[in-house]
Write a structure and sequence with these properties.
By secondary structure, the protein is of the alpha/beta class. The protein has 3 domains: 131 residues, NAD(P)-binding Rossmann-like Domain (Rossmann fold, 3-Layer(aba) Sandwich); 201 residues, Dihydrodipicolinate Reductase, domain 2, CATH 3.30.360.10; 47 residues, no CATH class. Strand 1, helix 1 and strand 2 form a beta-alpha-beta unit. Helix 5 packs antiparallel against helix 17 and helix 11 crosses helix 17. The two termini are 34 Å apart. The chain binds nicotinamide-adenine-dinucleotide (NAD).
């Protein structure tokens, strides 16, 4: 049934959700992987964003127009365009709907993280995988960044024996971190809050590094910096609705969409279609996600994790330490921001740096060389794309490829954290979803 007469051997992909993240996939399909793959359709609630991309595809990649479908025509699109694999890059709260419907229609699915936002949707996805037998990949690009793969290699080789505890601090700066408070992420029902939306990456890394699953989660979360009430309590005034308004001029937290042709074309010019405001005041009303989060997690392996996420730091990056029965490994990384609002933040201008140190017991510490890599997210994006779309599959000795169970394990820590924040109680993962 699903064969293209024009190019029978090329896999046919549809991209659902044509916002900023989608370009990584469309560009790869239209350029590097065009011999083995076809970007056969786009689908979104906003026709202007799809038209913006079609213009860009023509101008930048010399591509022909990709058929664009309204969200209501998703099913018709899959059938008419004979889609093999659906790539889901919509807002988080809608992922489950497209994942499940695509699999029901006989497609495989590649989804952006987080796989979904709550336990009920997670159970529905796992049941659909079981029922349809289709494949679901979750694009955990963070695993592919060479520094993190190197840590996996060291742990897998038993360099520090059995890992008993992990200390993990992630910092989002006032450029990139603030961005989650400007748009749909600021409402927990859209994103699951940062514990799900952002920390799914971090919890996935820990699950993968340890080769284990979370068992019990406890923590506290607070909105302590962003939002009108916090700003007013500090005596600050940020009296504007959106960063593009004239009153926002000079506020380093304000994002002016009109100042960037890409943001203008994708969001400002498209907002009459769906009222999606990409540049809301991070010190305005309507934010119900946390910006300050601390957790402890126990794993089935017996390891314990202490984790914190701060979304208003002067620099962006992370520190992680693994304590094992034969030593300790530390990984430190200073990252660069990729969304710029005000240009004053240190994180936005500081050079990228990363360091892995192994401290064997009774021996001298040693620094471990990290292979160089190009591209976004510490080099993870390009390696992930190659793994997804290259015609020839490479060996996967470190288990980089993530599926539906990895997607579930990683969000369940965050979903449990949200429940712990609400109830003040430790939450067992098994009370949310039963995982093998
Ligand atoms: N892996 C990573 O490092 C990474 C980085 C950025 C974003 N992401 C993920 O990519 C996804 C998209 O993020 P983004 O930054 O591109 O957001 P965005 O707001 O730029 O784009 C989201 C798109 O989804 C569309 N959409 C909303 N509801 C829809 C519906 N019901 N049906 C179809 N389309 C719908 C919007 O119109 C918009 O075009 C998110 O799930 C995010 O977590 C992952």
């Amino acid at each position: 049934m699903k064969k293209s007469s024009a190019a029978p051997s090329r896999k046919r992909y549809a991209l659902v959700g044509t916002g900023s993240r989608s370009l990584m996939f469309s560009q790869a399909l239209l350029t590097t992987y065009r011999e083995s793959a076809v970007l056969a359709a786009l689908c979104d609630v906003n026709p202007r964003r799809m038209a913006y991309y079609n213009n860009l595809f023509r101008a930048d990649f010399g591509a022909e127009e990709v058929p664009a479908y309204a969200a209501a025509d998703f099913e018709a699109m899959v059938k008419k365009e004979k889609i093999d694999t659906v790539i889901v890059t919509t807002i988080d709260r809608t992922h489950h709907d497209y994942i499940i419907r695509a699999m029901e229609l006989g497609c495989d699915v590649i989804t952006e993280k987080p796989m979904t936002t709550d336990a009920e949707k997670c159970r529905a996805i796992l049941a659909a995988v079981e029922r349809t037998g289709r494949s679901l990949r979750v694009t955990f690009n963070y695993r592919y960044a060479p520094a993190r793969t190197k840590v996996k290699e060291l742990l897998q080789a038993g360099t520090i024996g059995e890992v008993k505890s992990v200390h993990f601090e992630w910092l989002l700066d006032t450029c990139h971190g603030a961005d989650y408070f400007r748009r749909w992420h600021r409402d927990k029902k859209n994103s699951g809050g940062l514990m799900v939306h952002k920390s799914t990456h971090h919890f996935d890394l820990v699950n993968w590094w340890l080769g284990s699953s979370p068992e019990t989660v406890f923590g506290f979360g607070n909105l302590g910096f962003y939002g009108r009430i916090n700003a007013e309590a500090r005596g600050e005034t940020h009296r504007y609705v959106r960063g593009t308004s004239p009153e926002a001029k000079g506020d380093p937290f304000a994002l002016d969409l009109s100042g960037d042709p890409n943001l203008k074309g994708l969001y400002l010019d498209a907002e009459k279609e769906d009222a999606y405001l990409r540049d809301q005041n991070v010190f305005g009303d309507g934010i119900n996600i946390e910006d300050t989060m601390n957790l402890v997690v126990r794993y089935r392996s017996g390891a314990q994790l202490s984790y914190s996420l701060t979304a208003y730091s002067p620099w962006e990056g992370y520190r992680i330490a693994f304590n094992g029965t034969k030593g300790r490994i530390e990984l430190d990384e200073l990252e660069k921001s990729y969304i710029s609002a005000g240009s004053g933040a240190i994180g936005a201008s500081a050079a990228h740096s990363q360091k892995i140190t192994v401290f064997p017991q009774w021996e001298k510490p040693r620094e471990v060389a990290i292979p160089k890599a190009e591209g976004g997210h510490g080099g993870g994006d390009l390696l992930l794309l190659d793994d997804l779309f290259a015609a020839e599959k490479k060996a996967d000795p470190f288990g980089l490829r993530a599926g539906h169970l990895d997607g579930a394990r990683s969000i369940l820590t965050g979903i449990a954290a949200n429940k712990a924040f609400e109830t003040g109680l430790p939450i067992c993962i098994n009370s949310l979803v039963t995982l093998p």
